[in-house]
Amino acid sequence: MSHELKTPIATVKLALEALNNFNIIDDPKRGREYLGMATSEMDRLELMATRVLNTSLMETGKIYLQRELCDMKKLVEDVITAIQLRIEQHGAQVHFDYTGSSFDVHIDKLHTQGVLINLIDNSLKYGGPHVHINIALTSSNGAVQLALTDNGPGIPEEYKEKVFEKFFRVPTGNRHNTKGYGLGLSYAAQVMRLHNGSINFNNVAAGGCMFTLTF
Question: Of the chain's two ends, which shows fewer C-beta atoms within 10 Å, N or C?
Answer without folding.
Answer: N
